[in-house]
Write a structure and sequence with these properties.
Helix content is 42%, strand content 14%. It has 273 residues and is of the alpha/beta class. The model has no long low-confidence stretch (mean pLDDT 93).
Length: 273
Amino acid sequence: MIDLHSHTHYSDGACAPGELLELAYQRGLDALAITDHDNLAGYDAALALPRPPSLRLICGIEITCKLGRKAPHLLGYFLKGQPAPEFREWLTERYEQRRDRNRRLVAHLQSLNYEIALEEVEALGRSMTGRPHFARVLVSKGYFPSIDEAFQKLLGEDAPGYVEHQAPSLAEAIRRVNESGGVSSLAHPIRLSLASEESFLRSLVDDGLRALEVFHSDQPGHHAQHYFELARRLDLAVTGGSDFHGSVKPRVDLGCANVENWVLEELQKRWGD
């Protein structure tokens, strides 16, 4: 089994890279991709740590994009090694855009009478502070009983506390990943809730999309079958992973998407040689 979608505390996960590697070994995984949001720091840290030879570590990323008020995510997998330096420079620009959005989000929440400061959110978020860290602070202060409720009532895309952010289009993110030697894959497509799903995916294929995340903790059973058939019709490779975040999302365990090794073998055959 493999898991091609996981997060460390360098984005919105709870585990340090070493803890994630140890857990992957305990779960008997053959390969693990660290796909932190909009940065490679978790992978870089894990790469320097000892790990069993039976566990393959894959360089990955999950890029936050923009589609109207939706925030679709694009996965990138660098099967041949590190991405091009220009890609890391682009990520630095994205980091500055994210910080600007966080400043605006703090100001907006304060205007709604929530006592919150950027410094306390960034203390949780490390190198990549985002809405999950805002939610954790709000829960700790008693405003909401859970992170899920904080999103539903305040921070979600259709909630009153939402602040739009500068983010690349899916087309730009696909181009950046592909040009940097990576494999672009649309993450958890079920979350987009699109009426014309297949035509939308066809437009992304025209933009260079190379894969579709078929297996995911939000897409069990017939959902996975639906996306598998879509991927085959569109000649897209298949990816999959748990979207593990540790204690931040306790219902999602590492490896729970039950992704078989052939998924990585297919990716390697099509895009890794």
